[in-house]
Design goal:
Blueprint (H helix, E strand, L loop, with lengths): L2 E8 L1 H5 L3 H10 L3 E8 L3 H7 L9 H8 L4 E9 L1 H9 L12 H5 L8 E3 L3 H11 L8
Antiparallel strand pairs: 1-3, 1-4, 2-3
Keywords: Kinase, Transferase
EC number: 2.7.4.6
Protein name: Nucleoside-diphosphate kinase
């Protein structure tokens, strides 16, 4: 089975509560490999560019504010069906609807501060990875 890659972001609510290791344990426990990882603090422009698909949504402005409120950890994950697998490990956008054992059920604070981002398709994963990493930063 071909390996696939997806982009993950550990969001400011999670880094603030020192949950990077706990989230990485869930990722690796699901059989996904962290093949790139960096801790950064986004400027307004970075968050606006990353979330530009949501520009017209009512939550966009607050989301940009939240994503620039503290450090984030951006990762590339690799594995079989990595995009769908990570969406399963993350759980539903709203933690109230997330399944037991998922990252969002266990750690998310709210529908906005929901601890993690994961690409929603293989195409978007490619675009997001290219936006966030240089090829040499990814070591598969
Ligand atoms: N979001 C929000 N309010 C909403 C829906 C989404 O603040 O009503 C935020 C939340 O942080 C979410 C992000 O916007 O993770 C992107 O939304 P999307 O619908 O793409 O959800 P995801 O793919 O992250 O589950």
């Amino acid at each position: 089975m071909a390996k696939e890659r997806t982009l993950s972001i550990i969001k400011p609510d999670a880094t603030r509560r020192n949950l990077t290791g706990a989230i990485n344990a869930k990722i690796e426990g699901a059989g996904l490999r962290i093949i790139a990882q960096k801790r950064v603090k986004w400027k307004k422009k970075d968050a606006e560019t990353f979330y530009k698909v949501h520009k017209e949504r009512p939550f966009y402005k607050d989301l940009v504010k939240f994503m620039t409120s503290g450090p984030i950890v951006i990762q590339v994950l690799e594995g079989e069906k990595a995009v769908a697998k990570y969406r399963d490990v993350m759980g539903a956008t709203n933690p109230a609807n997330a399944n037991k054992g998922t990252i969002r059920k266990e750690f998310a604070e709210s529908i906005e501060a929901n601890s993690v981002h994961g690409s929603d398709s293989a195409d978007n994963a490619k675009k997001e990875i290219k936006l966030c990493f240089k090829a040499a930063e990814i070591v598969g």
